[in-house]
Amino acid sequence: MIKAAIIGATGFTGSELVRILLGHPDVELIGISSESRAGEPFPAVHPQFEGFCDLTLVKAEEIAALGPDICFLALPHRVSMSYVKDWQDAPFRIVDLSGDFRLGSASTYEAWYGTKHVLPDLVGEVPYGLPELERDRLPDARIVANPGCYPTATSLALAPLLAEGLVKPDDLVVDAKSGTTGAGVKPSEGTHFTRINDNFRAYGLLRHRHTVEIEECLGRVAGTTVQVQFTPHLLPVDRGILVTAYARPVHETNGDALQRLYREFYADAPFVRLREAPPELKDVRGTNLCDIHVAHDPRTGRILVLSAIDNLVKGAAGQAVQNMDLMFGLPETAGLDLLPLRP
Amino acid sequence: MIKAAIIGATGFTGSELVRILLGHPDVELIGISSESRAGEPFPAVHPQFEGFCDLTLVKAEEIAALGPDICFLALPHRVSMSYVKDWQDAPFRIVDLSGDFRLGSASTYEAWYGTKHVLPDLVGEVPYGLPELERDRLPDARIVANPGCYPTATSLALAPLLAEGLVKPDDLVVDAKSGTTGAGVKPSEGTHFTRINDNFRAYGLLRHRHTVEIEECLGRVAGTTVQVQFTPHLLPVDRGILVTAYARPVHETNGDALQRLYREFYADAPFVRLREAPPELKDVRGTNLCDIHVAHDPRTGRILVLSAIDNLVKGAAGQAVQNMDLMFGLPETAGLDLLPLRP
Amino acid sequence: MIKAAIIGATGFTGSELVRILLGHPDVELIGISSESRAGEPFPAVHPQFEGFCDLTLVKAEEIAALGPDICFLALPHRVSMSYVKDWQDAPFRIVDLSGDFRLGSASTYEAWYGTKHVLPDLVGEVPYGLPELERDRLPDARIVANPGCYPTATSLALAPLLAEGLVKPDDLVVDAKSGTTGAGVKPSEGTHFTRINDNFRAYGLLRHRHTVEIEECLGRVAGTTVQVQFTPHLLPVDRGILVTAYARPVHETNGDALQRLYREFYADAPFVRLREAPPELKDVRGTNLCDIHVAHDPRTGRILVLSAIDNLVKGAAGQAVQNMDLMFGLPETAGLDLLPLRP
Amino acid sequence: MIKAAIIGATGFTGSELVRILLGHPDVELIGISSESRAGEPFPAVHPQFEGFCDLTLVKAEEIAALGPDICFLALPHRVSMSYVKDWQDAPFRIVDLSGDFRLGSASTYEAWYGTKHVLPDLVGEVPYGLPELERDRLPDARIVANPGCYPTATSLALAPLLAEGLVKPDDLVVDAKSGTTGAGVKPSEGTHFTRINDNFRAYGLLRHRHTVEIEECLGRVAGTTVQVQFTPHLLPVDRGILVTAYARPVHETNGDALQRLYREFYADAPFVRLREAPPELKDVRGTNLCDIHVAHDPRTGRILVLSAIDNLVKGAAGQAVQNMDLMFGLPETAGLDLLPLRP
């Protein structure tokens, strides 16, 4: 059994990690931490777990003493890198779910995150844990950077086109829509029920941090510089991201060719489902799936790709477990045979 | 024109007062206050008003200098009574939308609100502004206590039965459900979108402050002591209260007799609509209406009354304007011919 | 492995049975039927199952030929009893999820359902499958009547009080609120998004069929005639029932005594969670749990009990599987270790 | 007073026309029709109107006899054109809210709507009633084609750019999101609450009829052929359309220049609000407003324009009344001083 611990278990990602790890046949959840609520039983924070997980939250420093094989860092950026720094020589492996180690260089990080990086040399060295696209370095990794939710949905949607060199890498429009869990558990004016319910808006216009993460990830796939126009919106739903992506082919193509391309590209990806109809959030709710629909518009020549994920699962906790599975030599589906909850 | 001002315009009740007063043919809105956001234009707080109300928020103390005829206090309890104290001899009239002057005595107030009253002698002297039930003292009132949202919906539902002496005054069950605006504009764990959406729960079990307000109001109607079992719940909707009330008749009755009783009791109440079907929140949304449905269950003998209001209008701002209309000798419908927004 | 089949798999209950049975370690799902959509793959009706269940829907008559050990009838009432009639001598067992065999006599059935029963002698002979209350006859049963959603939530809430003789059996008010899946999959004016969203209403006032089912079930628990005032409401949520029940004790009691009573009564019930706070729908979403909170109001003397279930799981498909487990000698939790999906 | 009638008052557009016309100071609503529900009082269909509009629905043929000055056709396409044909010589004016007369030629109509036009010569002759863009022909018009909801939001968003020749007319991406009222009042699998709630999806991919309407409208503004990539999505909200549009400038520009352009272009448009923040649906709910935010991305060079309308008001009934105002020489704001209902 892999001994796993979660650092920062009070947020949505933390609780989702607990939900998944509790059902993982090869994992024992040995500890969960929270600085602010240490000493309280987990159900005091997430009452749905009463009877399922009665672990007590502890301070992060106590976790190491429990002898974990792996720690999941479900922390805000900035906070996360300080733990990685402290635990550089620790005897356990790490999946970092923050944005601190996803980018290619400390300078890019500092430009988009507006903060100094405390481990500049490590940035760019940490494998990016989007297994469908970059699987090779995961088995040996001591630390893996778990991708952001939007980059997961977007990169999976566009990767086949860019890997094939089929579309212009500098003419990509990504119109993304996310459920409210993406905004985090912390109450704010922006997450008040009455602000979200029966409402809809864009946010983070032109400068959302996931933009550069998408560009770097797809750039590695394409082998060239990629530029995306990325616009996130906030949906009155709990979970889920739907990405509508627009690309321009560099030569003639058609729907059948695109279907074939995607089917081959994802032939070995157990969590990608190619759908005949445009995907819906509820079809992937609670699961590690990414549903993708690709279409060619003969009228305009453009390619449209729509993808749907559960931002808390494939966009965070589920993908983190998938990475763990690969780091520990398990089948990547271990513990992730989650069925959609619909309706 | 009546010169009106709003003290505390940053909450939902404040913004709803602005919405209604802007359309009132006999009112000029001369000032709006906020201690925390003084100096900002109103649309900086409530962006929907851009182009409709570009007043700047000021400190409350500046309001008096504007020479209002009436001030609406849209403040939390405790804060409100301190303004009333300061303005005891002010030359303008007041509608207080807080709970500070609704109850019959300072001791009752202190028992349910857990705080000392600063004007104990005034408590119990201020007319209770539920015009359908107690209209006489409003025209001469300098200050009126605007009822709570639950008490409005509940008292209007049950008053005809109690006025007639038709039901046991100590065997009343009131199961109430409210939209989230009732919880106020302030972000909290309890108003986070993900806590409310696709969810439902009771709160304030056994000890909600509106319990005693309902009992006192209905007690005056009944001419005897009234006891209610009151249970509020939180709905995943923005606006609206639905009350389901259960009463026991003291003698035989039937549906027809009840219809007649309600029709006569509310013959002169322009905002009460007696409905043949159970009421729905959306039929009263944005309006000062109270929709009521009454039924007799021949199987159990009980009487059921269901009522629906918009908690921000008939349950707060609209009723406050109705009270103002009556205080100033206007028709009580002035400025309140609001149609439901449905769907 | 138990060979299971589902008759009528196109509704919400059918799809939920598939979701649960696919994860059941002791079950093989061998067939699913639909008269109207026979010949189509299951994901054509419930697209979320693509990749999880690619069975083809067949006509019900073909199911028997597959040699099932058990058939779940997820059919409307009236339709269901005709299958039971046809399959009276079939070599498989049946869990009927309709209302056709839940009541004590054909005459009661005909009075509340307004239709003739085709197997009048069987009505009243079929065990009622609410295992927490009536477990004894299940192991030997050839056919089990799966309880309704409201009766499940209500009976579990009130049973300890009635078993103990603690409350008046003829003074019970049950104010219930259900998610929209309770109204079925069929599109209608009443289930149109705009009718439900941001709205709330009561329905089936005074005459909902579950009333008599609750009264009979609790009557068996109490050993005397029980009468409830039952009022269902429709919530703008997908799943979940919350029941708020009001009872009158026949002698002095208090909160501690009630906690003790409930804890003892449900000591061996793995799906009942006694909660310190009022229950919420999302804490049980996707699970077979029933969360219960009991309180005594010293002011009024009344007892309040609140319960929450997922109407599609504990209120339908999950309970059906729990019944199957008991019918086949499995632990009643087999295949039902479902964690809540929250948020 | 203008005598107005509504043909087809049972849908959402019909009820919204009633809501607006009841409050119009220069209009008397003399008749409302429905073929399927003639003989019933209006509140039997739209219960919110009880006490506000107790007109009885009649057959359309009876409307003409009432001597209206104007008829609003709130009918499905195909049905609408047959009324226009019957009423070619009628003594009243017409605002047609269907798609039957919005396009430039019968052949285009037939290509996108898949049906023969019964008045091919009239198609292309009827003024298109988007007053902010094409106002001149409205005062003299006998019949006006009221724009579609998506075209209204999209064309207002992009018109200044195309009028100025600032952007490539063949490189426009329009990602649009609509509330469920856009799908009409008729119950269907696609409008069932559980399909929409907590869900999100695209629909009508590549072939939505509003595509060509947008292209033609913007083509007239641009004076050249325009091609848009238009993708509609379905939001779990009742009302509102949010459009996110992406354009490529043909020469250098910046945010300030764009603000100036839009401010000048819409200087005389009372219903267009240029917003500093991305618009939100609730800021325009219940109103005839179109909120627009324009931005330039210096990183990618693209221009982004976001617009928000209430699809039932500015996207249908409100704009129809605005057109009526202009047809009858009234100020275009007459009867349309509607404040947003928020929250």
Description:
Four copies of one chain form a homotetramer. The first copy, chain A, is α/β, with parallel strands linked by helices and 343 residues long. Chain A has two domains: 2-146 and 314-327, Rossmann fold (3-Layer(aba) Sandwich), CATH 3.40.50; 150-311, Dihydrodipicolinate Reductase, domain 2, CATH 3.30.360.10. Helix content of chain A is 27%, strand content 19%. The first copy, chain A, has ten helices and twelve strands. Chain A has helices at residues 12-22, 42-45, 60-64, 79-86, 106-113, 149-163, 193-196, 210-222, 255-265, 313-327; strands at 2-7, 27-33, 70-73, 93-96, 143-145, 172-178, 201-202, 228-234, 241-247, 272-274, 290-296, 303-309. In chain A, the strands form two sheets. Chain A has a seven-stranded mixed β-sheet. In chain A, helix 4 links the parallel strand 3 (70-73) and strand 4 (93-96). In chain A, helix 1 packs across helix 10 (313-327) and helix 6 packs parallel to helix 8 (210-222). The longest helix of chain A has 15 residues, at 149-163. Chain B binds chain D through residues 12, 15, 19, 22-23, 46-52, 181, 197-198, 238-239, 273, 275, 277, 280, 282-286, 337, 339-343, and chain D through 12, 15, 19, 22-23, 46-52, 181, 197-198, 238-239, 273, 275, 277, 280, 282-286, 337, 339-343.
